[in-house]
Amino acid sequence: AVVASAIASVTTPSFDEAELIRRAVAEKVWAAEQQKDPFGAFEKRVSPEWNWDWPHLRFCRDRIYEAEQRQLAGQLFRLIVCIPPQHGKTEQHSIRYAAYRLSKDPDIRIGIGSYNERRAKKISRGIRKIIRILGLDLDPESRGVLDWRLKGHRGGVVAVEPEPLGHGHRP
Question: Is the pTM of this model over 0.85?
Answer without folding.
Answer: no
